[in-house]
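User: structure tokens for Metallophosphoesterase, please.
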Amino acid sequence: MRVHVVSDVHGNSRDLAAAGEGADALVCLGDLVLFIDYADHTRGIFPDLFGAENTTRYVELRTARRFDEARELSARLWADVDKAGAVEAAVRRQYAELFAAFPTPTYATYGNVDLPALWPEYAGEGTTVLDGRTADIGGLRFGFVGGGLPSPMRTPFEVDEETYAAKVAALGEVDVLCSHIPPLVPELCYDTVARRFERGSEALLEAVHAVRPRYALFGHVHQPLVRRTRIGRTECVNVGHFNATGRPWVLEW
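Assistant: Done. Predicted tokens:
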């Protein structure tokens, strides 16, 4: 059995269309939407609306952790724009391309920048969306937990600690624990380019200790200090920043 796993697609529909080649199934751990490309300030919803120069300034402020100033800049730019309408229209355009690129079967959960309310409109019969639920893939039980935890970034799909922990607990025993964000392990949460710790989940870490799955798979941290580590019998793996690499992580058994 061969499963390809991707995360942090961020608009890369071209490579996504080929991500399932040679696999029995594709697993997607979220963040389909591209709002800002930190490596290319001409790509994404924000530069499409406000240009590369404003995007560069916004990225500089966020990277420097000057979040209040970044929010002030954003507020000025959005002042004369119907933000909700403009963002939804742009996300719908991206989702139309991205969901059409998913192979059959695909098992997917949400990232912290996704808009879950729109997914039912675009997920076809070959795509199973899971959050706080499990699926049998090739005889192994995969558990999925979508979204992120509250952060200074204030991304669209962040839930509180209790809600997130309840989704993890609902999975029960699993062989493969799939989430967008990592377990709360410092070296898995630190982004070496952004130079900050991203949010990791204590509930996921507790599940790794208690359930002891074969694998804990996640994304979210684009340039992690450590891409994989072992906790007991569990191999914890950041499956990679698919937007940048265009390559899925491969799981075979």
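User: Anything notable?

Assistant: The mean pLDDT is 96.
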